[in-house]
Specification:
The structure is a homodimer of 138-residue chains.
Chain A lengths: L1 H9 L6 H11 L7 H11 L5 H13 L4 E6 L2 E5 L6 E5 L5 E4 L10 E2 L2 E13 L1 H9 L1
Parallel strand pairs in A: 3-6
Antiparallel strand pairs in A: 1-2, 3-4, 5-6
Chain A binds a DNA duplex (25 and 25 nucleotides) through helix 4.
DNA sequence: ATGACTGCAAAATATTTGCATATTC
DNA sequence: GAATATGCAAATATTTTGCAGTCAT
């Protein structure tokens, strides 16, 4: 929670308990949770928290670059507290969303084709290593 | 329409008028339309077409690789009839979604970190060339 | 005639908004 | 006490589903 508080303060955001809880959960969690996931989890500690607050907070956090908003699933947002440049891999067989520690070479200079880059989003869909192994065993 | 028919047949999909119309629109259109956009446009030619059919068709077409499904906007799908590998750029100032004719170097060999790649999704958000110019003029 | 396709209406899901209450400085 | 944050309920938007009617072979 202290880490979360510091990060919020560094952006001039008032570190309310709810905001710290949301950010803290994302910082300690590399599962790329949905809003529902985050809400369910926080309910255990803060029985009065509302989904509206979770939505508000996530919007504010991603607007400030403290978390990333992932549009990988067709109609559900996911959030990522790990904001170092990286890509994702969605396995179409087991559904796992895997972090890939690779960067986009095209974004190195902060712009592409004359356009200024603020965010880089890269993800792949396919069959993950583990599912490939399972397939071969058959 | 003939081009669309051929592509449908090549995938073993029955080329109904509705399906040809959806695919044909996407092939002749590089605007990355939403379902609503496509529906509105097709209504002019096919006053009885339903949004359900548009949804069904788009799902089938993207499942067969005839069009791409873009998850760039937060809660609205966009579709792209241009399926050569390329990336996109979303301008946060003017809202334009621009095609970038660049490929993902990480995907060259068809897999990343041992995972088999079926789809590559790369997009950037930022300020486009034109909006940067306008900013400078001030 | 059979199976596939279409389209309407209703349902499900995700997200946003309006507003009253509560909290913080 | 003024400004900000929270939380409930209602509204909106998008997508999916169930099903009856239609079309094509």
């Amino acid at each position: 929670m202290e880490n979360a508080r510091k990060r919020l303060e560094s952006k001039g955001i008032r570190p309310t308990y709810q905001r710290m809880a949301v950010l803290s959960f994302l910082l300690g969690n590399r599962t790329h949770p949905s809003v529902e996931d985050i809400y369910e989890e926080l309910l255990r500690d803060i029985p009065t928290i509302s989904k509206t607050t979770v939505y508000n907070t996530l919007q504010m956090l991603s607007g400030n670059g403290l978390v990333s908003h992932l549009n990988i699933f067709d109609s559900q947002s996911r959030y990522d507290g790990f904001t170092e440049p990286h890509h994702h891999f969605l396995c179409e067989s087991c559904g796992k969303l895997i972090d890939l520690m690779i960067k986009c070479p095209n974004a190195k200079i902060g712009c592409v084709m004359g356009h200024k880059i603020n965010e880089v989003h890269g993800y792949f869909k396919g069959i993950c290593k583990d599912c490939l192994k399972k397939e071969r065993r058959r």
